Amino acid sequence: MMVKQTGAESYDGSQIQVLEGLEPVRKRPGMYIGSTGYDGLHHLIKEIADNSIDEAIAGYGSRVDVVILADGGMQITDDGRGIPVDKHPKTGLSTLETVLTVLHAGGKFGGGGYKVSSGLHGVGSSVVNALSTHMIAEVVQKGELHRIEFKTGATVAPLKKVGKTNRPTGTQITFYPDSSIFKETIEFDYKWVVSYLRHQAYLTKGVFTSVLDERTGERQSFYFEGGIKSYVKNLNIGKDVLADDIFYVERQVEDSMIEVAVQYNDTYAELVKPFANNVLTPDGGTHLIGFRAAMTRVINDYARKNSLLKEKEDNLGGDDIREGLTAVILVKLPDPQFEGQTKNKLGNPEVRRYVEQVMNEYFAYYLEENPDVAKKIVSKALLAARARKAARAARDNVLRKGALDGMGLPGKLWDCSSKSPDDSEIYIVEGNSAAGSAKEGRDNKTQAILPLRGKVLNTERARLDKMFANKEIVAMIQAFGVGIGDAFDINGLRYHKIIIMTDADVDGSHIATLLLTFLYRYMKEVVEGGFVYLAKPPLYSINRGQKKTYAYDESERDRILAEIIAEKKERGATINAAEDVMKQAGVTVGRFKGLGEMDADQLWDTTMNPENRVLIKVKVEDAERADAVFTKLMGDEVSLRKSFIQAGAKKIDLEELDI
Description:
By secondary structure, this protein is an alpha+beta fold. The protein is built from 22 helices and 21 strands. The strands form four sheets. Strands 5-4-3-6-2-1-7-8 form an eight-stranded mixed sheet. A hairpin with a 2-residue loop joins strand 18 and strand 19. Helix 3 runs parallel beside helix 6. The protein is flat, with a radius of gyration of 29 Å. About 40% of the residues are buried.
């Protein structure tokens, strides 16, 4: 359990450093929170809650409670030390007011407030204040409640000692986002908050986090005594692990803390989550480099020492060793050097040495003490190395030289004439009949057509050597131009819209899922770059004489028929039901069974014409969630897939999956 420090060094106004004023925030909010859409709105929560997490990381707090208020506000409470309420030596204001009204004022500068923090720039609280119509801050210290109130960043009720209270020491911030700033939405997403707090509980061992949504009554709480060990266990749900035991180490090196958890599964993908001071660094950095170097060295050394690698065999490569690896790396350091405001990559050079040192020593101990697990890891890496060689041979044998570098195109591809990727799009079409209509109806200047026959290989459980034996997979690799495996290069992408066009039925959704699995597992950068789309063909055609209207689902069909009824009533007709419309007004409703039923003009009008078509952009907002979805849908664990389908049987389509 997280134990609060009581005898810690003093925490007062002298430790709060002031760098500049607040005025620019409302003028250019995107500079401070990234956007003023959904992501920017939820970034406000993170800015406040991260401060509470920092208190827990430092050992001064043990819980963070979030409430989505029924009136649209957000309330975040912690049991840390409480933001100081004494007079700040530089501003002359109370320290609490300084923190909430002055940009770059916080305990993260100067080294006095926090030894380790997730916030880098210290702009959080004041930015949230500036972008809120109303903010209330309450601090409890020594049994007394202090309160201050703001509107659009300006103080409207000065700091006041309200009186005695039984509430624990800590800080409570309540804020209401400004709809004139966040024009897209000011409605908080309960699922986002749940995901954020779950991750913070994983990363801050022993901290309790909770969320209550007053709008619906939903609530969840999280507490993981195992910390990142619990995180790794969760990441491997639905996968067969090589051993139930999870390698875990936590060691201090100089002024930094290194924490790593590792477990292997029998899949072919690597899933490593690197964090620095609880901030996910998706582009890696020095901590990830040190981890990978140590893993490669330790496993090769063990394999040599125990004669698992033959004398003449080459060392195992890093890619082979990381096949099926699930790991969480968490480093905590006093002065993190992130690359850019987005904090996507850690740059501290000393951290590589720290992580290597810890892993070289303790993972080597782990392998020596667990020889059965060690042999399984080495055996899996050896299989991966052999499969990689087989894949390379298959690539050379199946495709002519240069084909995977975009120099050769599949014979069944009907390419577009444009050579500009920005202007070019490729339709991956199920079935020869639909592909024929698409070819005839397309704009051949910008639209390429690649027909697929039947259901493609399930690549969730296939290595590259098996994929090179599948003609449909090979055709896509050739057509896209990015290569695959160690030859992958996103710069070779020939089309900046890859559009999956399948029938609007269960089989069509299955084929689309198989294609998405291939793209996500083996061409993830294509998906993450926003180049993949799902075409949404209509289900119904509604014909009124010469006028045709298309409906994409039942509700849209019913809405169109209701509009026709309303029109007829305005003209004096006594029509009250869809059946009457069809009998009396000559309206016919047809249902498409598949793309193959549409002629070229219909397919162009409904699904391919940029002015009329409906495309769903595939986004990976949470790669961890996407990984879990693909494991459930395409993996070997039948019970997980069954539970997933039963839970969402009425809405299980690709749009609802939100991946």
